[in-house]
Amino acid sequence: MRKSSRFITAALVPTLTLGVVGLGTTATTVLATASVAAADQSGPWSVPTAFTDAADIAEVVDVQTTTDGTTVAVWYRTIATTRQLELRVAVRSAGSAVWGPAQVLDTLPEGRESVSLVPSSDGSATVTWVNATESSSTLRTATLAKGAASWSAPVGIATAAAIGEVAFAGSPSGTSVAVWRKSEGRNSLLYVSERSGTNGAWSAPAVLVAADAYWPQAAVAADGTITVAWAHNVAEGTTVNTVTKAAGATGWAAPSAVSAPNEGGAPVLSSGPDGTTAVAWVAHLEGAGEPDVVSAVRPAGSGQWGALHTIPSASSAQLGSTLVGPNGDVTLVWIDYSDTFGVRTATRSAATDTWSAVKTLSSGYVPEQFDANIGADGTVQVGWAQDDATAEEGSRVFFTAARDNGVWTTATQLSKAPSGYAAGAVSVAPDGNATAVWAQDDQLWTAGTGLPTTPPPTPAPAARRDYVGADGFPDLYARTSTGGLLIYKGNASQTVSAKIEGGTWPTTSTLVPFGDLNGDGCNDTLVRDSGGQMHRHTAQCGFPVTPESPSLSLGSGWNAFDGFAYSGDFNRDGIPDLIARQISSGDLYLFTGTKTGTLTRVGRVGTSWKSLTIVGAGDLNGDKVGDILARTTTGDLYRYYGSGTGTIGSGAKIGSGWGGMADFVGIGDLTGDGKDDILGRTTTGDLYRYAGNGTGGVGSGVKIGTGWKAITSVS
Fold it and tell me: Which end of the chain has fewer surrounding CB within 10 Å, N or C?
């Protein structure tokens, strides 16, 4: 489905890159929310901004908006060294144009498997996916509670030799259901598991359909009634079957066929806020020639499906979405392959039980999957990738169109430039405003309506090493013997005091006070665990980092390095960088920060550093580039200037007698004179400040503290 993309060569420490996957065509669950006035969808989209790093290989899975306006995006990122996929999520708060840091839900050993993202009326969102290996598959789920900073740990719902075609749905009542197909010999069964409430336990998997079932779909009405649809193979051909479980019931009703034999297909199912449920499929009707789109509607409170409707002028179709509006109207969106592969739509009026004329949203060639979403006010948003007539064959752009107050807008191109891959996803908030996330080659982009039409202002740069208080003074990290983190605040007296607790971390973890890696105006902390995983922890501005702070994986294999040093920016791109020493060789490597908050290995910047103590000094000579300090085993101190092009220069001796220091730190500008300073802790527990002179050296030590001997380390 996706063209081959550039291959990122393996790094010494694998930085996690992103993969590519297509959009699912599962129906969107419409949330039961009070109707609000429709937003002006003909209004402008915000300026498209990059959503992932240009070096990533990324592919959109889905984007959805919860009832409180929180928007969640899910995508894949290919790990360059293994070609496995990383399932990632990010959250944008209601009314904001800024996305929070990406979080990794899972690493998938093989392929792209059945990912669903479903919002709930309580403001939560749930993701389900399949983690498959050669020998087994596990269906997993994770939930983001309303207002939470991070997702719940993944929970396994079921494990089997092979799990596929997963359907997941939730409702305002808190009921959730997962249905999946499982092959047992030559038979194809459907299994089901249910959950009550966001934090409820999943029921044990049970057989729902015992034979010949494929392409399951699930929907949950506002009152908690569950409907499952599937394609059922019978001797005469394929039928569309459904089964329901009423709200509060302990068992399922008997299955029933919606279509006639040999007139079924892969169904698409959805329930609306008023309880109306609709199912549609593409079928070869008796004597009809080309396949047509067929639909049926079950009114709220009814146990029977209405008459089948064949959508006029729909043939050779790929059905994408069945959308049920707040008043029971049903909108279908499909690609019509009969002529130019354009995007088509039609709507059934609940009042008259008749279909509108087919509306053509795009007459351009649409070769890839597409997405459609409906808001609580009935606003519909559709997104698709189509060939760009102005570029070479195979170059595509991403378009959207909306139905606002019953009127479709003109298609809008959101892609800035044609690319070989442009699939995307769209969502609609309760107020009718939309969010789109799409691919431009291997990078993801995003835009929204109801957001600023100009890029949000760039946050003011965080003061170097200011981690608590947001007061502009640099702070000092100290670790206790039990793993506790104490953050000592810098102050106007040119000392550090007023310790703030940063929680208890494993004593085997290495904490590296770092700069603002994700561009939110707050400094971050890098943490390497005992297994060699590195994470970026992002605390709220002015508050201490803790083990519960939102984190992003920066890859594995970091146990091959020590001597981590943060000095600032080494390549003048405005993003902080990391120096690390390879333990086996003693060589020094530079890892540059990216604009999506990760690290990328650039290369070796020094050799034979095995016997040296390495410290990130900050900017010692005022050229806005990070510098390095190194102490020899004899206690001599050397300075190494950063070049600004990702390298460091030759060492210059700037001091001796530093062997009595248990550790020392490039603290930043503690004296307030605009020059970076050094703190040193003696083996006897005294703390000294060495003021930088701005020309690469430091002055004489000034004792600013005693009693630090019990501290395990400072950084």
Answer: N
